[in-house]
Amino acid sequence: TNKRIFPVSRNSGMAVAGMSADARQLVARARSEAHQYNSSYGEEAPPEILAERLGLFVHAYTLYGSIRPFGCAVLLGCVDKDTKAPSLFCIE
Question: CA–CA separation, 23 vs 6, rounded Å?
């Protein structure tokens, strides 16, 4: 089976569409960003920060002709730990 929904951190997860190898790389990057934020600041990454960092990573792969852009789209869903407000971000 093709797994299409992945947990990122305790309060966030991703649903992916497209090439599964590219999607797995984005999931690994999102988990890494969440872990780095937690290690640096001692708290969970806010949804906006996590989405922005992942978006910048995806954007970097569109800047050069020598590397292939990602062939997948990602829905990043988060719940803010403090306000309990849900967030949904589309990253392509």
Answer: 10
